[in-house]
């Protein structure tokens, strides 16, 4: 655990560089959501979770994380590598043939840190609930974390899971929703308005924590620690994390245009100039 | 001609074999957990539920969530058995099985009752005839369709010892129970039931008993039929199939399933690659089912011993 704020900010900037370089190299991938969730991943893996980079699938005696919106794999891979799960040089292989860093995360190639395949949306919360129930059966008091896109909540399976988690008092689970308000075809409000998500989660019986500044390291630490303090109270915990898609690269911000598009050479240079190398490029 | 015969020790439903196997596993394997989507009685999971309430999970009418939860439960060493009808175990949750179970190689046992037309009166909405195809196409998925109560019980116990995803298919009607109560079930190992020289009959599930009945009649007609129980459709016992067909020169495949995507197609592949031979299919002909009694439906869709006899004679004539 390292809650040294300047270090976390440097790591965030470095992860942004990783994301931009990974998607640029293969001219594919999803930078927008990845950049928007960079601070969250950095805080989760460096401050909030008790986890063991010496990877074991069963994850007994440690906190576990499940990424449901698997398309933001660039940020996941970068943060895992920089947390010690695998060598950062392997980020060079993102989306290439024979790589463990598939377009969407998978257990299939044995990449340390990944416990479930995701990409087809809406499945991660159910998986997280199952892992949480196994923790309980195993008398393991560690927590389960998951991350979901806001547009992803349009998938009905989430609402089956949200209902089940409350009914079964799954209180060792913290599910975070990345509220960036964007999806492929436009804003979430325009594509399929989802109404008041806080009220919906609460109506389903969850405790809801809002992090209004979802790109602030300090705000995320505070909000996630509050979320942790709400576990063990008979209710699942939802964190509504308001982020800016494309955060940290000015021309990628506040738009869905960079959901699944890589920058060209010129755009990469601009993006990297806005995020100077800190810890060191891979 | 002398022919080995099998005795029906009394009709029983294969789903009860599953329930009995699960009850046994509850006692012997503390890692086995069971999930059900509001069909506990239909799947005969009540005894497990009563004996191990802490290891039984009622998920309600939410099969997609059930499959995802099962996948997650494997992380930490549990062995989840999910229970619902075959239709809701496969088609309804195909993508959940594909990504969260098969591609993720999770140790989930998808246990599916009420497969095929013998579900009966509920009709085509519930009578899936495509599930074997759906499941066998998933890389790494084992597909098992046992023939009677005893074999379903043995298969249920056996799959807990196999690491990886398994689709276990069984049914609703009471059918002859004729395999040994004390059998051990070996995944992927076909069971040679009757020796014969004129035609090979490869049957799975409820059609195995019908194949035995057909062999008796064929014997009376002077036709020597070899009968093999293909309880595991994937991985298929290529060796047993080829050995038999090389001897008899032709084959009839029998299943309560669409000929598209079923056992017959898997057998056809093995033969075309290794030993081309005439083949006839006892299977549904790219159709949905309908309401009726199981016996009426097996008759109408030509899934009984009469159909097997007819196809056996036809395939022999093609040699």
UniProtKB/TrEMBL annotation, chain A:
Matching InterPro entries: THDP-binding, Transketolase_N
Pfam family, any one: Transketolase_N
Keyword line: Thiamine pyrophosphate
Membrane-spanning intervals of the chain: none
Protein name (database record): Transketolase
Cofactor requirements of the protein: thiamine diphosphate
Lineage summary: Bacteria, Pseudomonadati, Bacteroidota, Flavobacteriia, Flavobacteriales
Family of the protein in this entry: Belongs to the transketolase family.
Record-annotated Transketolase N-terminal domain positions: 16-268
């Amino acid at each position: 655990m390292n809650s040294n704020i300047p270090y976390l900010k440097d790591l965030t900037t470095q992860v942004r560089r990783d994301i931009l370089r990974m998607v640029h190299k293969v001219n594919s991938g999803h930078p927008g959501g990845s950049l928007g969730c960079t601070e969250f991943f950095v805080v989760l893996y460096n401050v909030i979770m008790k986890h063991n980079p010496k990877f074991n699938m069963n994850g007994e005696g440690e906190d576990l994380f499940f990424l449901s919106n698997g398309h933001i794999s660039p940020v996941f891979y970068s943060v895992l590598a920089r947390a010690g799960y695998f060598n950062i040089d392997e980020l060079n292989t993102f989306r290439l043939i024979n790589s463990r860093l598939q377009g969407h995360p998978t257990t299939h190639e044995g990449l340390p840190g990944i416990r479930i395949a995701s990409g087809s949306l809406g499945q991660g919360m159910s998986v997280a609930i199952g892992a949480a129930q196994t923790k309980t059966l195993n008398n393991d008091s560690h927590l389960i974390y998951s991350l979901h896109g806001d547009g992803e909540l349009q998938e009905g399976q989430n609402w089956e899971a949200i209902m089940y988690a409350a009914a079964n008092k799954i209180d060792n689970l913290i599910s975070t929703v990345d509220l960036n308000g964007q999806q492929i075809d436009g804003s979430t409000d325009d594509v399929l308005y989802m109404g008041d998500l806080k009220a919906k989660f609460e109506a389903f019986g969850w405790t809801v924590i809002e992090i209004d500044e979802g790109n602030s390291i300090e705000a995320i630490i505070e909000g996630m620690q509050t979320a942790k303090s709400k576990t063990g109270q008979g209710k699942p915990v939802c964190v509504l994390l308001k982020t800016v898609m494309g955060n940290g690269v000015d021309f990628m911000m506040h738009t869905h245009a960079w959901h699944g598009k890589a920058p060209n050479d010129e755009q990469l240079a601009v993006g990297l100039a806005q995020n100077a190398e800190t810890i060191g490029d891979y | 001609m002398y022919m080995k015969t099998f005795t029906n020790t009394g009709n029983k439903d294969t789903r009860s074999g599953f329930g009995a196997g699960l009850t046994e596993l509850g006692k012997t394997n503390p890692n086995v957990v069971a999930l059900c989507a509001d069909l506990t009685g239909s799947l005969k999971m009540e005894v497990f539920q009563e004996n191990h309430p802490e290891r039984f999970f009622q998920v309600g009418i939410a099969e997609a969530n059930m499959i995802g939860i099962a996948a997650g439960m494997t992380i930490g060493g549990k062995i989840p058995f999910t229970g619902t009808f075959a239709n809701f175990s496969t088609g309804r949750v195909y993508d959940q099985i594909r990504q969260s179970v098969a591609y993720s190689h999770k140790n989930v046992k998808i246990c599916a009752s009420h497969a095929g037309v013998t579900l009966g009166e509920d009709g085509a909405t519930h009578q899936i005839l495509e599930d074997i195809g759906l499941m066998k196409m998933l890389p790494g998925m084992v597909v098992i369709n046992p023939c009677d109560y005893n074999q379903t019980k043995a298969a249920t116990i056996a799959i807990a010892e196999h690491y990886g995803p398994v689709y276990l298919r069984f049914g609703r009607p009471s059918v002859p129970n004729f395999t040994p109560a004390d059998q051990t079930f070996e995944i992927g190992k076909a069971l040679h039931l009757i020796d014969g020289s004129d035609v090979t009959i490869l049957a799975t599930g409820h059609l195995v008993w019908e194949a035995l009945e057909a062999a008796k009649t064929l014997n009376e007609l002077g036709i020597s039929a070899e009968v093999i129980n293909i309880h595991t459709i994937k991985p298929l016992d290529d060796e047993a199939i080829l050995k038999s067909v090389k001897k008899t020169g032709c084959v009839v495949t029998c299943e309560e399933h669409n000929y598209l995507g079923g056992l017959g197609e898997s057998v056809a592949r093995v033969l075309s690659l290794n030993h081309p031979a005439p083949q006839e299919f006892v299977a549904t002909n790219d159709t949905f089912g309908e309401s009726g009694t199981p016996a009426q439906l097996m008759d109408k869709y030509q899934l009984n011993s009469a159909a097997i006899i007819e196809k056996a004679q036809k395939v022999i004539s093609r040699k």
